[in-house]
Amino acid sequence: MKAYDFEACVFDGDIYCNECLPEGVDTDCEDVHPVFADSEWDYYPTCCACGETHDYVSLTTEGREYETQRTDN
Asked: Disulfide: which of 32, 33, 51, 57 matches 10 by Cβ 3.0-4.6 Å?
């Protein structure tokens, strides 16, 4: 995946897979913000519509610690 690729985006404060965006909204809309592959998050973004976790992003130090603790339990 290249740095400028994205499979998810933020719209109206929620995370969506590109194909799960509400009807009439697409990735070219002004209010849609891509979750680029080279972005860094405190958690893996998860689609509010279908529940898919987008683990292609990088995690911050806190995010890596959280994921480690979550999987150890």
From this structure: 33
- Residue 13's SS3 state is coil
Q: How many Å apart are CA 42 and CA 64, to the nearest integer?
A: 8
pLDDT for 14-59, tens place per residue? 999 999 999 999 999 999 999 999 999 999 999 999 999 999 999 9
Q: Hey, what are 37's tokens?
A: 């592959």
The pTM (predicted TM-score) of the whole model is 0.86
pLDDT of residue 50: 98
In the chain, domain spans: 8-72
Concatenated DSSP letters of 15-70: EEEGGGSPTT--TTSTTEEE--TT-EESS--B-TTT--B-TTSEE-HHHHHHHHHH
